[in-house]
Amino acid sequence: MKTPDDRALEASLPDAVISQPAGSAVSGRWWILGALVGAGISLFLLLQGAGPSVTLVAPHGHGIGPGDPIRFQGLDVGEVVDVRLAQGTGVELQLRFRPEAQGLARAGTRLWIVRPLLSLDAVTGLDTLLGSRYVSLDPGPEGAERRDRFMALAAPPVDALSGGLPGLDLVLESPRRNGIQPGAALTFRGVPIGAVTAVQLSSDATSVEIHVTVRSGFARLIRERSLFWEMGGVEVDLTLTRGVELGLDSLRSALVGAIAVATPPNGGEAAPGGSRFKLHEDAEREWMEWTTPLPIGDDLLPRNARAGESYGGVLKWKEGRILRTIEVREGWCCASQAGLIGPRDLLTVPEGSTPESAILEVAGQRFGLAELEGQGLVADLAPGLRRIAPAAFGDHWGLLAARAIGASRELSGPEDVLVFGAPGSSPLAIDASRIREGPGGGMVVAGGPPVPEGWHGGQVLSRKDGALLGLMLTSPDGGAAQIAPVQVVTSGR
User: Fold this and answer.
1) Is residue 426 part of a domain?
2) Are residue 401 and residue 268 in the same domain, yes or no?
3) Is residue 150 domain-shared with residue 226, that is, in the same domain?
4) C-alpha angle with apex 246: 243 to 251, nearest 5 degrees?
5) Is residue 392 a part of any domain in this protein?
6) Binning pLDDT at 50, 70 and 90, where does residue 426 land?
7) 58, 93 Cβ separation under 8 angstroms
8) DSSP state of 122
9) Same domain, 277 and 225
10) Reduced to 3 states, what is the DSSP secondary structure of residue 10?
11) Which bin fits 265, alpha (ψ -120 to 50), beta or left (φ > 0)?
């Protein structure tokens, strides 16, 4: 118990004060301010280095998570920042694009989640079925306005895989589904050219309708009489040295389903969109052996390049003195500044014929070849080719000249070409590997299926620059076809 003297002594003692160096309070405040400024600068720099943030709504997450990439043309252009449940059903993905890719977040851009679809790309076992998820996209048109919210596609769009051009939509009819799923490949000679987009019952439930989209660059492979069949089953090769081997293509087909197509030599015209075909269960051996040359590619020729119009020519003549026979030869001709040019055997009076009987019908005109030769209106143009001078056509020549062939050049070596015949029909495609130097320095078509006689006189155009390289000359005895160079001159009688 404190006495009055103790309390008086405590009242007289000074309060203890903890001393601190002068200016320390001020420096503490500056430290806090500096930290705030630094954080602000860091945040500013972070925002400056990041692209736009968008929301992608998808029906299912498919195991995608934060940190998974956004890819375009094989490059990472952003990443998934967050994945959360959407209001109602589905999920919402928060995506952030890199600054250099911010223009991809625009109206018309299509996005989808890429995940394993049971495809085998190497003989490494079933672990190849596992792979990382990512978001892929097909950008909208240039100059479209910015968007910050997108709906994910359920599967990659087929037309996006072919460069954005619309594909050819077909319907295959089958009595049963046979395991075909949306996304199953459509193949031509084992090369994917399209995919199944939907499988459904017909309106009266009597069959299954399988909707297929063919990529635009391969649409010309599908003709009126093309045949489709289901690919299934697993090929097993049992050997003493290697053990059991599985056919990789057939294993892929067994897992995801696949459809194959082949086109016969007489396939007919190109199939229009919406065409319906029967889906066969198996292929016949003959179908596997068809080697029909058909053009592929979105653009057959470079922009503004075109073939001149071809005109069918028919030459008729009589042979024999007692038992006379009427012979016929057909081919194609085209107009040039030098006149109408065509195969030599079509524009020449045949040996052994009655000269006055040789009648040529071409481009709406009827000529006696012997008479034209007598007037000097028919002359050789190049080896294998002849020309009829413009004067032979009179006033009709103006219409032909308006549809004349364009630029021409020499075929100096093998290159991809197209042969044009009947107006409006699909051209004949010939790969560079089939063009070789023939006797006398000319070019011949060797290997692969022979060029049919129906292309005799067809215009041969380069797929590289669209220039006319020559006319196709076929052989009636089945020999190798030749490309006769066209030496276009600027004047003619």
Assistant:
1) yes
2) no
3) no
4) 165
5) yes
6) confident
7) yes
8) S
9) yes
10) helix
11) alpha
